Amino acid sequence: MAARWPAYFVAFDVLQLDGQELLNRLYKERRALLERLFTDRALTAPWTLCPMTTDLAEAREWLQTWTDVSGVEGIVVKPLSSRYLPVHTRGGPRSEDGTPPKRSSAPSPEP
């Protein structure tokens, strides 16, 4: 099955490099480090650098064409000026000070 449907590791962010945590670095800095990592280490398949764009029209085109032909399920949207904020499986995303987001009074849908 692996020969018929090979797996790929698609990287869109780097959170640690050479033992250094990068969580407080801006995304644009982390992305530059990730791109340099691929170049410096000549990474090829199964390692794949996720394409990136800041062009909305290009992102829309990717979403439409890639989901139709390659099984891509969506896109990752990150502000270039953002630091990494972990998303917790319980309680959702947290603000930079670790507090949960304000909750709606509307009932949550069933999983």
SSE string: EEEHEHEE
The largest pleated sheet is described as: 2 strands, parallel
Label the overall shape. Answer: globular
Q: Which consecutive residue ranges, at least 5 long each, have pLDDT under 50? A: none
The helix count comes to: 2
Structural class by SSE content: alpha+beta
Round the mean pLDDT to the nearest integer and report it. Answer: 79
What helical percentage do the residues reach? 25-40%
- Rg on CA atoms, Å: 17 Å
Say how many strands there are. 6
Please give a structural write-up.
It is a single chain. The chain is of the alpha+beta class and 111 residues long. The chain contains two helices and six strands. The strands form three sheets. A two-stranded parallel ribbon has the order 1-4. Strands 2-3 form a two-stranded antiparallel sheet. The protein has a two-stranded antiparallel sheet with strand order 5-6. A hairpin with a 2-residue loop joins β2 and β3. It is globular, with a radius of gyration of 17 Å. The mean pLDDT is 79.
Q: Which properties best describe this structure?
A:
111 residues; alpha+beta; two-stranded parallel ribbon; two-stranded antiparallel ribbon; 2 helices; 6 strands
Please specify the SSE layout and strand pairing.
Layout: E1 9-11, E2 16-17, E3 20-21, H1 27-40, E4 47-49, H2 56-69, E5 87-88, E6 92-93
Parallel strand pairs: 1-4
Antiparallel strand pairs: 2-3, 5-6
